[in-house]
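**Backbone geometry record:**
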Amino acid sequence: MALTRDQSLDAYRLMKLIRRFEEKCAEHYSAGDIGGFLHLYIGQEAIAAGAKYALRADDNLITAYRDHGVALAKGLPPGGVMAEMFGKATGVCGGKGGSMHLADKEKRFWGGWAIVGGHLPLAAGLALADQYSGTDRATLCLLGDGSTNIGYFHEALNLAGVWDLPVIWTVENNQYGMGTAVARASAVEDLTQKAAAYGMPTATCDGMDLIAVMDTLGKAAEHVRAGKGPMFLVIDTYRYRGHSMGDPERYRTPEEVEKEKMNDPIERWAKHLRDEKIATDEQLEAMNKEAEDAVAAAVEFAKSSPFPAPEELYTHVTA
C-alpha cells in the first residue's frame, strides 16, 4: 500500500502528535491534573497511524483502554481529548469518561472500554448491524494480547465466524498482559492459533513498521468488505512505558526496554522519509515543533475549561 508524499508527512505528524500527547499526559498525571488510570500508547503509534490510512473514515473502530492514540488517529481533536483527560466539560465525553472511555459516534469511534475484552461482543454487534443494513463498512476491533484469554473473546469470535461478520479482530501484541508475558498466560504463544477454532484466516505483521501495518490492515479490510467473513490479525509491537502509570515494571529489565527502543516506529518512519527524499531533517524538526505546539494548546484548552456542572451527574443515566 503506497502513501502519497503528503500522506507520508501527515503520518509522521500524527505519530509525533500521539507520542507528545502521551508524554504530556504522563507529566500531568504525575502533577495530579489527571486522575483515575492512565495507559499510554508510547511505542505503539504505527498501529493507530496505519489504521487511519488503511481504512475508510466511515469504518467502525473500537478499542480497549489504551485508547488515546487511536482516538487522535480517528480524528478526535487533541484539545477535546486532553480536556476529557482532565475531566472537563469540554472533553469529548463531557468530562465523564476520562482516559479509558474516549468516544465519538460521529467519527464512528466507539471507545475506549475499560473492561478487558468487554468490547469484543460490541464489535460483533457493530459488524452485524452493518451486515444487516447492507453497507460495506468494516469494523476494526483492537484488543490486547491479554484479552485473548477472556471468555468474551471466544464468544465474539465464534459468532463472527458463524455469521461471517465483516470484523477485523486485531491483537496489539505488546508482549505483556499487564505484567505477565504472553508465554506465561497463554497456552499458545502464536496467538493466531486461537482463531483456528473459528475458521477465520489470519495474518501477522511487524507493528513497528507503518507500511507493514497499513498493508496488513488494508488487505484485511478488502477481505471483510467482500463478504468473506472476519479476519484475525496479530500485530507485534512493544510499549515503552508501563501497563499503566502505577506499574513498577518488575517483570522486565530496563535493558530490554532500551533494546526495544532501538526499533522505535517513529524513528523508523523518519528514516524512511529521509531515505526517500520525502523530508529533510529541518522539515522533520518543524513537524516535531508542530506536535509540541498542538499538545501545548490542548493542555491550555483543558486547563482553562470548566468542570462539569453538578447537575450533570444526573444526565446520560439510564435506569
Summary: The mean pLDDT is 96.
